[in-house]
Amino acid sequence: MNIGNASDKSGLPAKTIRYYEDIGLLKPDRADNGYRDYSISDVHKLRFLQRSRGLGFTVEECRQLLALYEDKSRASADVKSIAQSKLQEIERKIVELRELQHTLKHLVAHCHGDQRPDCPILESISGAARPDPS
């Protein structure tokens, strides 16, 4: 099938499919005319990549997961290790986002939001951006 059909069946834009091919995640056959010829297996890989990316895995992590997916003698411990690392990364990001949320809530609550020029939000940002005088 051509890239348009592969795009329709996988739900990924043709540009993304070409990118995955460029970086070696996908290697479709070539027809006699030189055009890419995507197989059902290629579409399955594209869907796998789409779901992996949707779960937050990086392209390199997707490469590892795809290799494990294709390796029928894989150890599930290897897959679990990658997923656990991603989960820990997400949990760290959640903590960071909660801290940001707390700070912004505090700043918004203390900003009058009226015609006065003083603003604790800008004061906080500019104070953080000032070089240390020492």
TrEMBL record:
Record's subcellular location: Cytoplasm
GO cellular component: a single term: cytoplasm
Keywords: Coiled coil, Cytoplasm, DNA-binding, Transcription, Transcription regulation
SMART domains from the UniProt entry: HTH_MERR
Alphabetized InterPro entries for the sequence: CueR, DNA-bd_dom_put_sf, MerR-type_HTH_dom, MerR_fam, Tscrpt_reg_MerR_DNA-bd
One MF annotation (Gene Ontology) recorded for this entry: copper ion binding
PANTHER family: HEAVY METAL-DEPENDENT TRANSCRIPTIONAL REGULATOR HI_0293-RELATED, REDOX-CYCLING DRUG-SENSING TRANSCRIPTIONAL ACTIVATOR SOXR
Protein name per UniProt: Cu(I)-responsive transcriptional regulator
Species annotation: Phyllobacterium bourgognense
Lineage: Bacteria, Pseudomonadati, Pseudomonadota, Alphaproteobacteria, Hyphomicrobiales
